[in-house]
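Take a minute with the sequence and fold tokens given here and flag any structure token that looks odd. Thanks in advance.
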Amino acid sequence: MTETPFRRARSEEQRAVRRQAILDTAAAMLTELPVAQVSLNELSRRVGLAKSNVLRYFESREAVLLELLGSAQREWLAGLAEEFAAAVDDAAPVAERADRVAAVLADSLAARPVLCDLISAQAAVLERNVSAEVAAEYKRAAIANVMELGRLIGERVPELDAHRAGRVAAGTLLVTGAIWTHAQPSAAMLAAYEADPQLAALRLDFTATLREMLQVLLAGALARG
């Protein structure tokens, strides 16, 4: 249980501390549970507040998770330039650089399963139970994150102008969410794969599939130049 040194948050500073405690608790839950299993009831129990009190800080479970998605994306982007610098040779031919960018993106995202799970739930779940105000705030932050990802991609593949690099960035997040969903089969699907080797060929490896799709995305964006 996350505890704060006060029972009631009376000042703005105390409210900020309690709000952050809710976010930290939800983030910890996501290391144990998939997004679909993170409930407001359990979050309230772990943070040590009544559900009605949690709702004073966030209007819904989805609002909490949307904020965590935005912060997880910013944290990922903050370290991505260094990952690119370590793996992409700026003097290499453009096709080789593009393939390395795709590989870095795939490996980096695969190392962040919570981020991938949140991305996969964004449109179908997290954006469905929030107010227009919360939705707009999230979308403004999301646009900034996509622009930053596009800038980082463009630094390594300057043959892409800002518009095409931005399209690749947006496509990266869309493809990540789709592949993550399909790469997390249910228990029934796992049993079917084990029972029938022909079906097992349909099981996706997240990292390899994402890398291949991003290579295609980058090659297509370059070809359209």
Summary: The longest helix spans residues 61-87. The chain has two domains: 1-58, 61-223.
